[in-house]
Structure to design on (289 residues):
């Protein structure tokens, strides 16, 4: 690889795509940050054309179909992006010996675990979205390209739409909110994940790091805990009440427990990952409301 790495960011207008553009803003990288209209990963011809024209060293696939509930009625579209799209990028990377960094999800698990999930633990997605993301993982692995697959969870950012923004918006319109307290995971600030991805890219043995990794902010929470933390940090007057999943039915079934064990990634990169409450405070300081 040359001294200046050519890096493709797909899905560049998404939460992670935007955070990565901030974190990778340095002379060591030449960034090709492309949104859906500039590069549709489901379009194999367009992907191949882009890779032919540009000498990419690392492709970071942030493009995804992420509408978890809508996916239940749009399975084909969801798979076209999360599986076929991933395959198109992986195949192009393989042909040009580029490294792929792909993002996957805690929703590949079914929630039956009672301790933080390791990379090799049994997957069993409950939703179309989770199944399509697992299919994408398998497609990438079997493509033979050099790939780092990072599963993350409960992603939020000051960019885009997410749980944090939803709570801030609802708090303006309502006196009280019922928030699910029986789903447990780890909220993850996309800026922290972007920093972790940069650590991979700058690792001296990058080419030898292929494999699956877990990355979440440290600590665990229910969605109710997450909402209470937002309320407290922002000093919102809205009343937040715990409810059960059964009181808030959604088209997609979500895992009741999806805490990720991030030891492998932390050891590989020699990093600590911030606690979710500390990162939430940083993110909220960037959101005006
Ligand atoms: N959000 C979470 O809670 C969460 C949790 C765990 C894992 N993840 C994973 O983390 C990654 C990043 O998520 P995120 O929250 O940053 O997602 P996001 O904000 O929804 O961004 C995804 C981006 O991909 C774009 N996109 C959709 N189809 C595309 C296509 N065919 N070609 C190119 N771009 C396309 C979307 O554009 P449009 O908006 O115009 O469709 C959007 O800008 C994804 O792989 C996701 O599955 C997310």
């Amino acid at each position: 690889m040359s001294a200046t790495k050519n890096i493709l960011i797909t899905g560049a207008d998404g939460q992670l795509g935007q955070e990565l553009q901030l974190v990778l803003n340095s002379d060591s990288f030449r960034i090709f940050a492309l949104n859906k209209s500039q590069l549709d990963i489901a379009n194999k011809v367009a992907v191949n054309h882009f890779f032919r024209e540009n000498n990419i060293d690392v492709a970071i696939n942030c493009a995804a179909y992420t509408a978890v509930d809508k996916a239940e009625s749009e399975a084909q579209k969801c798979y076209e992006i999360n599986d076929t799209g991933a395959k198109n990028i992986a195949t192009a990377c393989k042909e040009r010996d580029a490294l792929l960094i792909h993002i996957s999800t805690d929703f590949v698990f079914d929630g039956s675990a009672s301790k933080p999930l390791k990379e090799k633990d049994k997957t069993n997605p409950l939703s179309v979205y989770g199944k399509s993301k697992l299919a994408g993982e398998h497609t990438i692995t079997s493509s033979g390209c050099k790939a780092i697959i990072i599963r993350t969870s409960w992603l939020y950012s000051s960019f885009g739409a997410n749980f944090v923004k939803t709570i801030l918006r609802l708090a303006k319109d309502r006196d009280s909110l019922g928030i699910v307290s029986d789903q447990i995971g780890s909220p993850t600030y996309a800026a922290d994940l972007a920093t972790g991805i940069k650590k991979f890219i700058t690792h001296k043995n990058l080419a030898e790091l292929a494999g699956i990794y877990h990355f979440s902010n440290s600590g665990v929470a229910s969605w109710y805990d997450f909402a209470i933390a937002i309320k407290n940090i922002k000093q919102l007057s809205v009343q937040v009440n715990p409810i059960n999943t059964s009181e808030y039915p959604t088209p997609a079934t979500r895992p009741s427990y999806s805490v990720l064990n991030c030891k492998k990634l932390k050891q590989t990169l020699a990093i600590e990952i911030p606690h979710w409450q500390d990162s939430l405070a940083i993110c909220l300081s960037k959101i005006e409301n």
Summary: The pocket of NAP is lined by residues 10-11, 13-16, 36, 40-42, 62-66, 81, 85, 103, 105, 133, 152-155, 160 (CB under 6 Å). The chain has nine helices and twelve strands.
